[in-house]
Amino acid sequence: MLKNILKSVRAKLFLTLCIVIVMIIGFFVIINNAVLEALYYYSKKEVLIDTYNYINRNISTFSNEQEKDKYELELEKIAVNNSFEILILNSKEIVYASNKNFLSEFGNINEIKYDVKYSIFNKSDLMYSENQNNIRRINDKKNGITYVLLTSVLSNNNNLYIRMPVTPIQDSADISNRFIIGMGIVAIIMGGIAITFITQRFTKPIEELNDIANEMSNLNFKRKYRINDSEDEINELGKSINTLSDKLEETIHILKLNNTELEKDIEEKSKIDEMRKQFISDVSHELKTPIALIQGYAEGLVENVNTDEENRKFYADVILDEANKMDKLVKRLLELMKLEYEDRNFNDTKFDIVELINEVVKNSKVILKEKNIKVEFNEKEPIYVYADDFYIEQVITNYFTNAIKNIEEINGKNRIKIAIKKGKEEGKLRITVYNTGKNIDEENLNRIWTRFYKIDESRDRSKGGTGIGLSLVKAIMTRYKSKYGVTNKKDGVEFYFEITTVN
């Protein structure tokens, strides 16, 4: 948790501020301790020398009783204003003392004179020495006080002593250090509060931009950065992020479209390849028998197996019949392949389904008469539907020819019944084709829609079945998304399909 907090920009800025403030405080404390006292000594040295010069110029005033009081008053002001203790001695007595205890604290006159004469003060503490002026730093171990002491000989040979305690400057340095440290702590607290509010103005849009970038990484380009009126770098970055998001979204959209087109092309190619393979497989499977028959009868004609004209004609008729069957099979197989593998568009129009059914029945008039089949279709009035009449004709023709091929006499009747009923869905008609005969085994009801599947009773080649008629019906109805199927009825079988009606 702490590690995550320290990673934030706000925490880094706060820590940086703290470090900078601490460094500044340390710098000022060092400068304060190293320079302030030296600067203080330098300034006081100048004051001490100026005081010496003032006293030396006016020392003769002490001999004038009228001017002496005024001069002493000036010296007191100088002593008070600068925290000085001034002592003037002659060979016999004290000429002037700003502090009556100065002499008792410092020593007797003889000792002072001796110290000044022979300079027995600690020479390492000598701060200034020029002509008669010597300024030293001395420690009063008895009172624990450090002083700056000026010793000099005036023009009238009086000895001058000016003492100034160093303690005030040391106290001032300590107070100044404490003040600097205190202000530093206050600065850190106020800086932390200020950074909290200031960085929020910067980190909030940065966090928003980070969230937008994460959304973009997940390919979600709906979220955009809210542009404001400011012209700062973050606002410019937000504009760039929005532009990048739009371009990425457009590019990915184009890539998806291209990928979709490519998938369609691949799918189409796969369908074409599958169609080609299936077509070759189906044709090679179904054409084996007619080719073998054609080859056999053709060899018979070549070798003149039968010399009479009637047999040769029979051979030729068989060859022609098988060729016609092959042609019909290939055409229907190609149509089935196109329906199953191509996106074939139907030419849907409005037409009369009753007229179409009558036309299909009429085309089979000869075979119906040969097999003595009775067709029942009682619709007389036109019924209009909406579909491609070419493919609907194929569906009806396949159902009708399938009924003819599989019809059987029941109770002395060969009967095919065609009816138009209301469909299971709204707006649909159901067309049914019933024929008398045996029921289809339950296990074969779904199999008959499979390409080239024939139940045993239909395997006689004389019936002319190709085995793809019902597959065509399935493909056409699947394209229309309409219902189709077969049900077993009493004494027969009924096929059906549904079509859209037109009012």
Please give a structural write-up.
- With 503 residues, the protein is an alpha+beta fold.
- Among the domains are: 2-174, PAS domain (Beta-Lactamase); 345-500, Heat Shock Protein 90.
- 57% of the residues lie in helices and 16% in strands.
- It has 13 helices and 13 strands.
- It has helices spanning 2-7, 9-57, 65-82, 102-106, 109-118, 167-217, 233-286, 288-302, 309-341, 353-363, 365-370, 389-406, 469-480; strands at 85-89, 94-97, 126-130, 133-140, 145-153, 159-165, 349-352, 374-376, 384-387, 415-422, 428-436, 484-489, 492-500.
- Strands 2-1-6-5-4-3 form a 6-stranded antiparallel beta sheet, sandwiched between helices.
- The longest helix has 54 residues, at 233-286.
- It is rod-shaped.
- It starts with a helix and ends with a strand.
How do the helices and strands line up, and which of them pair or pack?
Elements: H1 2-7, H2 9-57, H3 65-82, E1 85-89, E2 94-97, H4 102-106, H5 109-118, E3 126-130, E4 133-140, E5 145-153, E6 159-165, H6 167-217, H7 233-286, H8 288-302, H9 309-341, E7 349-352, H10 353-363, H11 365-370, E8 374-376, E9 384-387, H12 389-406, E10 415-422, E11 428-436, H13 469-480, E12 484-489, E13 492-500
Helices, by number, come to: 13
**Roughly what is the average pLDDT, rounded to an integer?**
77
Give the helix/strand class: alpha+beta
Strand content: 15-25%
Looking at CATH, which topology of the domain at 2-174 would you report? Answer: Beta-Lactamase
Structure summary, number of beta strands: 13
N-to-C series of helices and strands: HHHEEHHEEEEHHHHEHHEEHEEHEE
Q: Assign a percent range to the helix content.
A: 55-70%
Strand order of the largest sheet: 2-1-6-5-4-3
pLDDT < 50 runs, ≥5 residues = 108-114, 116-124, 457-462
CATH top level class name of the domain at 2-174: Alpha Beta
- Evaluate the radius of gyration: 63 Å
For this structure, what is the CATH homologous superfamily of the domain at 2-174?
PAS domain
